[in-house]
């Protein structure tokens, strides 16, 4: 049997006031009328806890758009889980936060699109910056730990020093600077988002210096831009190893991006229990361990570290989810990535970002 | 890193210590993840109250666990500091 998961990522809704063009939600967003009910989510939390999950990440879209959020927070808390609220900050008034904190939110993860109001709001597609700053101050006043999350790409990478300064001003204990990963929306907008080598080279020392300067005060987690690397980033702790994701409609995913693998048969909490899905479903077992690997991964010592890279990326760029992640320099498909870098990093004219919207 | 014997460790804000019935183990929950603790580690973490020093914790544990040295406690606390579960003052 697989080991028990530690965390549940509960995507309560795909609805969101923001329209970030790199959103990690799938292109095909779940509509409101297809969302799980409060009862369903309570059952999902019960099953996740019984399976071993100890952290529940309440995410979206924007989880604040679910009117039953307080009830779901209280329920997750009553199970003894660590409750993490992942939010854009839009709609997080002082009263709302106070009430959610009293019901059991343990930690708030707040997205920040860019260092400045203008930059932030351009990327978010709405005026959100001031509300984020206010939300951060409410989190601090409530005495909750705050993580600020910024997705990095061509449009904001040059401002990384400003983003770090902003997170400091907001009082974050942690800052996650994650270079864009290209699935779904981000893949569609890749040509606008791919940073140049020069941008990355300039950002690296800035981040490293800030990590050093802020040691013990604000932890900075930096996620690499994998297209530009010789080795892929590790897939979590391996596929189906630590965490599971439940989408707004109840689809259970081994990883948040897994819907991009169209050959994967996805189960739903309306039909099966999380226990059965975690332990017995073909989707969760598809890439567990090392047996599924082909060469070069199969005989590569790095497989223990990176698990052959990202299955979603392998599928999207090669059509085979069991292939070596094509960003790996040992992959026979690395030329695909190099070609993308060559053509998309220096386009004659930058295309326009497709804003995330429900159809 | 090393932690001095008179340093006073405290569980960080936003970190929860609890017992997991499913794994039948003490665990610490924090924003980045979950740590499963063995018996000794759980006892040490439970005493990181912002009042007791490393030395005090070693004394308090001596009854329960024969042969606990302050150095062992310091080492364990250092690991917990690295994982951002506790911080130390003094
Ligand atoms: S398959 Fe890819 S997207 Fe999914 S968790 Fe692994 S690395 Fe991330
Ligand atoms: S060949 Fe596979 S295991 Fe080896 S570094 Fe590349 S992706 Fe990782």
UniProtKB/TrEMBL annotation, chain A:
Classification lineage: Bacteria, Bacillati, Actinomycetota, Actinomycetes, Pseudonocardiales
Residues the entry annotates as binding [4Fe-4S] cluster: 16, 20, 23
Domain of life where this protein originates: Bacteria
Pathway: Cofactor biosynthesis; pyrroloquinoline quinone biosynthesis
MF (Gene Ontology): 4 iron, 4 sulfur cluster binding; cyclase activity; iron ion binding; oxidoreductase activity; S-adenosyl-L-methionine binding
EC primary class: oxidoreductase
Organism: Lentzea albida
Short name of one Pfam family: Radical_SAM
Catalytic activity from the UniProt record: [PQQ precursor protein] + S-adenosyl-L-methionine = E-Y cross-linked-[PQQ precursor protein] + 5'-deoxyadenosine + L-methionine + H(+)
Cofactor(s) the protein requires to work: [4Fe-4S] cluster
Cofactor note: Binds 1 [4Fe-4S] cluster. The cluster is coordinated with 3 cysteines and an exchangeable S-adenosyl-L-methionine.
UniProt function note: Catalyzes the cross-linking of a glutamate residue and a tyrosine residue in the PqqA protein as part of the biosynthesis of pyrroloquinoline quinone (PQQ).
Similarity field: Belongs to the radical SAM superfamily. PqqE family.
Domain Radical SAM core residue range list: 2-217
CDD domains the record matches: Radical_SAM, SPASM_PqqE
Keywords assigned: 4Fe-4S, Iron, Iron-sulfur, Metal-binding, Oxidoreductase, PQQ biosynthesis, S-adenosyl-L-methionine
HAMAP family cross-referenced by the UniProt entry: PqqE (MF_00660)
Xref: SUPFAM superfamilies: Radical SAM enzymes
Protein EC: 1.21.98.4
GO biological process assignments: pyrroloquinoline quinone biosynthetic process
Assembly information from the UniProt record: Interacts with PqqD. The interaction is necessary for activity of PqqE.
Listed name of the protein: PqqA peptide cyclase
UniProtKB/TrEMBL annotation, chain B:
GO MF annotations in UniProt: quinone binding
Keyword annotations of the record: PQQ biosynthesis
Entry superkingdom: Bacteria
Pathway(s) where this gene product acts: Cofactor biosynthesis; pyrroloquinoline quinone biosynthesis
Keyword Amino-acid biosynthesis: no
Gene Ontology process terms (BP): pyrroloquinoline quinone biosynthetic process
Gene3D superfamilies documented for this protein: Coenzyme PQQ synthesis protein D (PqqD)
Subunit structure, as described in the record: Monomer. Interacts with PqqE.
Protein name: Pyrroloquinoline quinone biosynthesis protein D
Organism (species): Lentzea albida
């Amino acid at each position: 049997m697989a080991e028990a998961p530690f965390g549940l990522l509960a995507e309560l809704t795909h609805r969101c006031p923001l329209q970030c063009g790199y959103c990690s939600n799938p292109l095909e967003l779940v509509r409101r009328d297809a969302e799980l009910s409060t009862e369903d989510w309570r059952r999902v939390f019960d099953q996740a806890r019984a399976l071993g999950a100890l952290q529940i990440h309440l995410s979206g879209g924007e989880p604040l758009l679910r009117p039953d959020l307080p009830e779901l927070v209280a329920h997750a808390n009553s199970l003894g889980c660590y409750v993490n609220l992942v939010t854009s900050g839009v709609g997080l008034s002082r009263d709302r936060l106070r009430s959610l904190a009293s019901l059991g939110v343990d930690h708030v993860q707040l997205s920040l699109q860019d260092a400045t109001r203008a930059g932030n709001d351009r990327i978010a597609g709405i005026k959100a910056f001031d509300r984020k700053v206010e939300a951060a101050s409410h989190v601090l006043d409530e005495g909750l730990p705050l993580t600020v999350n910024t997705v990095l790409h061509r449009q904001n990478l040059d401002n990384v020093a400003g983003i770090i300064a902003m997170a400091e001003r907001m009082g974050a204990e942690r800052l996650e600077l994650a270079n864009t990963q290209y699935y779904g929306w981000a893949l569609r907008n890749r040509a606008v988002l791919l940073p140049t080598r020069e941008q990355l080279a300039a950002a690296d020392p800035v981040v490293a210096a800030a990590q050093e300067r802020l040691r013990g005060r604000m932890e900075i987690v930096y996620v690499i831009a994998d297209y530009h690397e010789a080795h892929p980033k590790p897939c979590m702790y391996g596929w189906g190893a630590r965490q599971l994701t439940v989408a707004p409609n109840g689809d259970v995913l081994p990883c948040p991006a897994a819907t991009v693998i169209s050959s994967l048969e996805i189960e739903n909490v309306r039909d099966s229990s999380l226990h059965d899905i975690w332990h017995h479903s073909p989707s969760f077992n598809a890439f567990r361990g090392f047996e599924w690997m082909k060469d070069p991964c199969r005989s590569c010592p790095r497989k223990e570290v990176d698990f052959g890279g990202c299955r979603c990326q392998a599928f999207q760029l090669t059509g085979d989810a069991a292939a070596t992640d094509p960003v790996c320099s040992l992959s026979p498909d690395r030329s695909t990535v190099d070609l993308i870098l060559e053509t998309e990093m220096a386009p004659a004219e930058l295309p326009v970002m497709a804003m995330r919207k429900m159809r | 890193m090393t932690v001095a014997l008179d340093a006073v460790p405290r569980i960080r804000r936003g970190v929860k210590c609890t017992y997991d019935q499913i794994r039948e183990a003490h665990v610490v929950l924090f924003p980045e993840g979950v740590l499963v603790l063995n018996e000794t580690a759980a006892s040490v973490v439970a005493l990181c109250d912002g009042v007791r020093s490393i030395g005090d914790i070693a004394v308090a544990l001596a009854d329960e666990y024969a042969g606990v040295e302050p150095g062992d406690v310091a080492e364990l606390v250092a690991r917990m500091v690295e994982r951002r579960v506790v911080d130390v003052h003094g």
